[in-house]
Specification:
Layout: E1 3-13, E2 17-28, E3 33-37, H1 44-51, E4 59-64, E5 67-68, H2 74-84, E6 85-89, H3 100-108, H4 117-123, H5 139-151, E7 157-161, H6 169-186, E8 189-194, E9 205-210, E10 213-219
Helix pairs in contact: 3-5, 4-5, 5-6
The structure holds adenosine-5'-triphosphate (ATP) and magnesium ion (MG).
Magnesium ion (MG) is lined by residues 44-45, 161.
Length: 231
């Protein structure tokens, strides 16, 4: 398996101990799309942050492409995040005083095997807007820039936390379609969190999380093109 999450747990110690993940198992093949569904507070972002090396598990293991992430020390985790993982969030987190191209170059300049900035700009359909600033773009266009920034490093894994959460229906569908295209064009494995179960159809595998446990796993043999998804 390309991504194997095994018996993952996470607890937070505040006044009391809160167990947010209670033994989560996930398996994902290389080049696949996985959707994680679940209500607010079910542990989706916590799970993604551990897979992305931003947060640490309490117990259990995460392996990606033969590398056991849960064994890495802090320096190794920094390297792992920089080289292997692309992040896309609900809010685009672009640097406001850098142009579109510069926002992407910031990442490609520190990557070992980056794609060409112009190639990813073309892939996301923004070649003609490369010299604009984020404030001169629509929300959907800004999310395209954040996807370009996430994929320019040629990551093993693209992690998307509610990537369409701030967008209207048609713009959401365009962004989902772009993610599907990135998956095909670059062979990027994608893990996407969403509240929207209509999006499940475009995933090879769907995990439904409930109170920190996997409540349901769905394998789709045929994938729905994003353009045909309706909600
Ligand atoms: N640092 C922390 N300390 C204590 N509890 C935390 C911490 N971070 C998250 N939690 C708790 O863990 C639970 C899961 O949070 P998480 O952000 O993973 O949920 P989520 O499924 O992503 O929800 P949403 O859909 O609202 O984004 C929540 O109950 C949250 O309050
Ligand atoms: Mg979340």
């Amino acid at each position: 398996m390309f991504l194997a999450v095994s018996q993952l747990t996470k607890s937070y110690q505040t006044e009391i101990v809160t167990t947010v993940l209670k033994g989560v198992d996930i398996q994902l093949g290389k080049g696949q799309i996985c959707v994680i569904l679940g209500p607010s507070g079910s542990g989706k972002s916590t799970l993604m942050n551990i897979i992305g090396g931003v947060d640490r598990a309490s117990s259990g293991t995460v392996e990606i492409d033969g590398q056991r992430i849960t064994d890495l020390n802090d320096d190794q985790l920094v390297e792992y995040r920089r080289e292997s993982v692309g992040f896309v969030f609900q809010f685009y987190n672009l640097v406001p005083n850098l142009t579109v191209a510069e926002n992407i170059e910031v990442v490609s300049n520190i990557s070992k095997r980056p794609h060409k900035v112009d190639d990813v700009l073309s892939a996301v359909g923004l070649a003609d807007k490369k010299n604009r600033f984020p404030r001169q773009l629509s929300g959907g266009e800004q999310q395209r820039v954040s996807i370009a920034r996430a994929i320019v490093k040629n990551p093993k894994l693209l992690l998307c936390d509610e990537p369409t959460g701030a967008l209207d229906f048609y713009t959401s569908r365009d962004v989902l379609s772009l993610l599907q295209q990135v998956n095909r064009q670059f062979g990027t494995t994608i893990l996407m969190i969403t509240h929207n179960s209509a999006i499940s159809g475009m995933a090879n595998t769907v995990y439904r999380l409930r109170s920190g446990e996997i409540a349901e796993v769905i394998h789709n043999s045929e994938l729905v093109p994003a353009e045909r998804i309706v909600w």
